[in-house]
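Practice problem 4.
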């Protein structure tokens, strides 16, 4: 036992002594390189893309939950996706054409995941958006929350309105 321990220590000592000189560490990145990585979501800041994406999704669905807290799951999911992807989506739907979502293929799964969490835990999620500095940044940056000509409330009101009952004209006979 003692012999094997001393043999192991001797091997470690010989390997340390005979080791090659270590390579010098690379220079740390400059401030501009760090900013480039943050803004382009590269390098050690790849996680920043997901933070910004889910923050944007939370800001989109905050509008939906604020305007209609009792919205159904499927209605909220569709309204959030249509609101987040912009006017080109609505124009394509109205024309009966396929909707090309070319901005980022991660947007739709992120919207679905965010809506699932926000639908199940609305109070906690809205508290994060409204009561934290990070949440308030995303809430202010959302085009849905700050645009004076926001179509989202009208879209939600239209989608949630009860179906109009057929009316009879005054001169018509049955």
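Answer key:
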């Amino acid at each position: 036992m003692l012999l094997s321990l001393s043999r192991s220590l001797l091997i470690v000592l010989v390997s340390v002594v005979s080791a090659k000189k270590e390579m010098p560490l690379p220079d740390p990145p400059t401030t501009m390189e760090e900013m480039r990585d943050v803004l382009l979501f590269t390098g050690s800041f790849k996680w920043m893309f997901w933070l910004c994406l889910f923050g944007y999704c939370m800001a989109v669905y905050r509008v939906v939950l604020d305007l209609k807290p009792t919205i159904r799951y499927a209605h909220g999911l569709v309204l959030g996706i249509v609101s987040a992807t912009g006017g080109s989506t609505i124009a394509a739907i109205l024309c009966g054409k396929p909707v090309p979502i070319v901005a980022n293929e991660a947007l739709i799964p992120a919207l679905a995941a965010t809506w699932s969490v926000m639908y199940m835990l609305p109070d906690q999620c809205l508290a994060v958006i409204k009561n934290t500095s990070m949440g308030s940044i995303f809430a202010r940056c959302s085009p849905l929350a700050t645009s004076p000509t926001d179509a989202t409330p009208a879209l939600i009101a239209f989608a949630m309105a009860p179906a109009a009952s057929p009316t009879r004209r005054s001169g018509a006979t049955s």
